[in-house]
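ok so i was messing around last nite and threw this chain in just to see what happens. nothing serious, just curious
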Amino acid sequence: MLRNRWVKFLLLYLGGVVVSLSQLKLVPIQNELGADLAISLSMVSWLMSIFTVSGIFLAIPGGAFVTRFGPKKLLVGLMGCLAIGNIWGAFSKSFWSLLISRAIEGISFSMIIMVGIVLINFWFKDSSSGIATGIWGTFSALGSMLAMNLFKPLAKTYGLRSLWLIIAVLSVIFLCLYLFLLDEPRSRSKTGSQADKGSFQKAIENKGIWLLALAQGCMAFILFAFINLYPQIYTQLYGLSENLANSYTGYFGLFGIPFGALAGYLIDKTKKGQVIIFCSFLLMLAATFWMGFLSNSFTFFAQLFALSAGASLASSCVMILAPKIVKEERLIGTSISFINLFYYIGIFIGTPIVTKISDSSQSWIIAIYLLSGVGIIALIAVFGFVKLTKQNAFL
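result:
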């Protein structure tokens, strides 16, 4: 077993990046995949969104699974599902077979955020949990950057299905590393397990958790709609080449990486969590609306930076602040699972709805207004959270 908690965290983080790569591998090759399967881009958008459908059903029981099996065994199982889904997908020749494989892959994403937070709170229970949690929230951003810059060239050189095989191999490697190198909290006693009964009901009695869940769901709706559709918006609305559009989209992930750690640092040091989370969601809203009014390369980069920073800060703030408003430690896993339910729903419905609105109206501007409206809902939820928790000294 590894002793250094930061080395253990690095292994956990890199595994999260592999899960993100699996989720986002279709984004840079969606045109090629559509042509290969003879399906429309709207159908391809369902292949991207179905990845999170497992999360909708498994987010809530995820807390119970952690209690029953332990975070380490669950993490190993999640990487196994990722490997199986990618091996299946590598040999799928039809839309429906690939759709099923994507759902199996998505089991890994359904609980990895929650499992990661449980392990982080165990490894860093004495200090630095905020910073570690903030960094953990950036694995999707790093995955996005790598996917947008590496996967299209790899697909051109080795074929579309090579992406599935690469991720399958990485999944098996991390499965073995987790099995032999990571530790976890000691198993709970039978009394403790009995006490966990009814924890979901107690967790959702917390109004602050509801408000954070709504804000996180709206954030996910906006974030993953942009991650999946940035290339289409750039090419169809602004006339950029496909290569340039993919390059810009890759920068989106790069810009977001440092802000998760920054959120943790600021909250740990300033104890101004309410102010930081409100400003983060406000920045995300402003950047979302700005997407419809770009004019040159500077505004492309500035909007990318602002949205990436705002979304990364917002998501990290939710995950850092949620445990601080939970009254009992045993409710943390269940509370995070409930927030993740909204997160997965936001990811699942965001891209298809935005794509449908754009196709129906023949306008990306209308779709951007829709995304801005979702951002307003998120900001209202955060404002309610700030008002509700203004007397909480831990924030």
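not much to say yet. The mean pLDDT is 87.
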